[in-house]
């Protein structure tokens, strides 16, 4: 899932002329990226995720394919002896070359749009920032260049999709749903291939050896990644490509294919399916509109690229983030007008909080606090930290606007929006609510992870900040 920005901080950056490294991005030794050493808890967690995550995806997809999305269905059959796991597996559509051709064409097309079609959207869309942009400083002291053209890729892809559906008829709009499970095998093949490739690459030909972290544990390195920004050549950044394409571009196409299948099966598209398509499309478009901003998030600035991101972007994201649309194909829900309005307003409120919270932080950072938040000059706590070269630097942690309500109120907005997707599906089954459960776990973990890093960086100044803004996500609760 694309990351959201964290604590409302603005840093006073300076360069160390000795090595060209921005000290604010190269903090105390060992604080960047993931761990240097692996404790037993981390190792057990990694192994469980490697074993269980693919099975969770398979279980959810099979529950819909064979049990009308009832998560209890496979378990009851297994418990009663009606079916074995082998029976469930054998009934699943298998890999086929038709799906492989579809998937290979899709990925190659997105590579083409990413590498060969320079962005023009930033020249014609007021307020949009695209084209060649700088990333953050890496621990090795590099500033990577990125071709930001995700919005353009999304637009081109969807224009072609609608042109096909209405004029050319090269393929059925239900093509994704009709090949959903065979495509799952293709996505797994790519996810594991990418994760394996970047691990081998880190040992044999890393993009920058100083941006690598090795442990003595194969499983941890494979899952969490070794290289910070693995690249093929100068421009093909594997982390940005797989984080932003092809999974997120496909998200809205997958939902459209589910809607087309609903039309084919029932003669109509329900208002709940329309809600899911609209609300999730807003989220996807927001991601691409702010792709330059995404270069400053945890995913790009702190996460290494391994199985966690590579397989996750190929399989976990497209298959589990779209569960609401899949559920509505098997269980169409027609909401009352009041429920439609309620769910829509909830989703829009969540998006507004998410976007405005991030906007306030961005404005505060760009102006070094010389701006107005909610009509007032923002209050802040000035913090200091010492970089690896022994120099002292300062940051401002904002305590105004949404950042004075909670320390990660952007995550709160994200969760409100996530809940709206689930509520659009009614209360017939648990499956469509997996998304809000997962996002809650993910974002709470990110809160704790980010605050641990900030505590190590700012020390007692961070305690002053947490005293001023007492809650992480929900005022008065957490």
In short:
The chain has 478 residues and is mostly helical. It contains 20 helices and 7 strands. The strands form 3 sheets. A 3-stranded antiparallel β-sheet has the order 1-7-6.
Descriptive keywords:
58% helix; 2 domains; 7% strand; mainly alpha; single chain; 478 residues
Mean pLDDT: 89
Give the DSSP E fraction (strand runs of 2 or more residues).
5-15%
Distance between the termini: 22 Å
Question: Major sheet: order of its strands?
Answer: 1-7-6
Shape: globular
**Cα-atom Rg, whole angstroms?**
23 Å
From the structure provided, what is the oligomeric state, counting identical versus distinct chains?
single chain
Low-confidence region ranges: 1-30
Q: What number of structural domains do the residues give?
A: 2
Helix-strand topology string: EHHHHHEEHHHHEEHHHHHHHHEEHHH
Described by strand count, sense and barrel closure, the largest sheet is:
3 strands, antiparallel
Give me the number of helical elements: 20
How many strand units? 7
Briefly note the structural class of the backbone.
mainly alpha
Helix residue percentage: 55-70%
């Amino acid at each position: 899932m694309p990351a959201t920005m964290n604590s409302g901080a603005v840093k006073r950056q300076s360069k160390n002329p000795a090595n060209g490294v921005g000290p604010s991005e190269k903090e105390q030794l060992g604080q960047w990226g993931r761990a240097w050493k692996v404790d037993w808890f981390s190792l057990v967690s990694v192994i469980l995720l490697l074993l269980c995550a693919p099975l969770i995806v398979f279980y959810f997809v099979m529950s819909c394919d064979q049990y009308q999305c009832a998560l209890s269905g496979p378990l009851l059959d297994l418990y009663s002896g009606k079916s074995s796991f082998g029976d469930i597996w054998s009934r699943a559509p298998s890999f086929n070359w038709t799906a492989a051709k579809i998937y290979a064409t899709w990925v190659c097309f997105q590579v083409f749009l990413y590498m060969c079609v320079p962005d023009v959207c930033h020249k014609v869309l007021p307020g949009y920032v695209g084209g060649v942009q700088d990333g953050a400083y890496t621990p090795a002291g590099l500033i990577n260049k990125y071709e930001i053209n995700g919005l353009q890729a999304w637009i081109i892809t969807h224009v072609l999709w609608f042109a096909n559906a209405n004029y050319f008829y090269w393929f059925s709009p239900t093509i994704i749903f009709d090949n959903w499970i065979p495509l799952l095998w293709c996505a797994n093949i790519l996810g594991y291939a990418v994760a394996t490739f970047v691990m081998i690459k880190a040992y044999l030909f890393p993009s920058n050896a100083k941006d690598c972290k090795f442990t003595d544990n194969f499983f941890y390195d494979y899952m969490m990644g070794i290289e910070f920004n693995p690249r093929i050549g100068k421009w093909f950044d594997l982390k940005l490509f797989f984080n932003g394409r092809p999974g997120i571009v496909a998200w809205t196409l997958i939902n459209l294919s589910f809607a087309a299948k609903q039309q084919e099966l029932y003669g109509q598209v329900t208002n709940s399916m329309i809600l899911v398509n609209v609300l999730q499309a807003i989220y996807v478009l927001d991601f691409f509109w702010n792709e330059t901003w995404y270069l400053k998030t945890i995913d790009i600035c702190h996460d290494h690229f391994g199985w966690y991101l590579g397989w996750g972007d190929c399989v976990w994201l497209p298959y589990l983030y779209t569960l609401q649309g899949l559920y509505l194909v098997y269980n169409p829900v027609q909401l009352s007008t009041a429920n439609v309005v309620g769910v829509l307003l909830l989703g829009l409120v969540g998006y507004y909080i998410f976007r405005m919270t991030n906007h306030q932080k961005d404005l505060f950072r760009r102006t070094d606090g010389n701006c107005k938040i909610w009509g007032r000059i923002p209050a802040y706590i000035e913090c200091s930290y010492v970089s690896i070269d022994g120099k002292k630097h300062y940051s401002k942690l904002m305590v105004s606007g949404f950042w004075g309500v909670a320390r990660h109120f952007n995550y709160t907005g994200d969760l409100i929006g996530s809940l709206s997707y689930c509520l659009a599906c009614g209360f017939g089954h648990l499956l469509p609510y997996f998304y809000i459960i997962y996002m809650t776990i993910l974002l709470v973990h990110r809160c704790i992870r980010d605050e641990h890093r900030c505590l190590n960086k700012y020390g007692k100044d961070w305690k002053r900040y947490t005293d001023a803004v007492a809650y992480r996500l929900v005022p008065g609760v957490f």
